[in-house]
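Student: Hello, beginner here. Can you help me understand the protein record under this note? Any guidance would be welcome.
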Amino acid sequence: MVLLPKKLPRPPDVDLDLVRRIGMALRRPMRAYFRPRVEGLERIPPGRALLVSVHNGGVLPVDSLVLGSYLYHHFGYERPFHFLAHDILWKMPRMLHEALERVGVMRGDPTSAAAALHAERAMVVYPGGAWEVYRPFSQRHHIDWRSHTGYVRLAVRTRTPVVPVPSVGGHETLFVLSRGEWIVRLSGIEGFIRSVHGIPIAVGFPWGVQLPFPLHVPLPAQLHMRVGEPLELHNLPAGRALFARDPKGDPEHLAALHRMVQQKVQEGMDDLARGRIPLWGKA
């Protein structure tokens, strides 16, 4: 975790008019195709908030698109929302990541994220990152954040409420067979790109068995998300003591807060997955 500078940069502006036009164009097709259910949006507090959710379904962020659509429909197009994304997008042509930044996608580094939160923005983060987004289909209802605790440090440092957002269904738009860690080891590119640990193998439409590229067409799985009650980690005993002795965060307190958030999200996923039929959703 990089220590934050005393003076934070200005967060990038979100082109809310562009977001509105994209949202209006995609809203009906997405709702007809994925039949989403997004519950509890009224629990998101005003001002800064860190929405912590589950990363699903490969490189196409269908759950992010659906969640973003519902956030803007509920709160209006005057309140900007940010989504933290993987570094790899900023290794692609500049035109691509500049376009993403216009609609609120941000590079997942602590300084940029803290700047947005200090500007009273709300932000969606997926602690599982690239590791979780390609977890095997058999593990689709289990979060897998490993020791990715940067969001805990960020929330406590900026005194930002953490809002758990369990989500199911996105991992049924593509059937992941393997993370493909062995491919990375054999190819010798392990560690070349930050937090990319494998070259996943999946079954998708229309290519059948495939690697992440060429892009698949997501299957029409019903998406279900539920916003939980905000957690003020900075007001808990472990949160107040997190940076008391170690500027990078006491490992024991950090792990305790991380487990607490994971448990809240996992409990929500267990409830959403109960009685669910793959692709169809809740009976």
Q: What stands out?
A: The first strand starts at residue 37 and ends at 39.
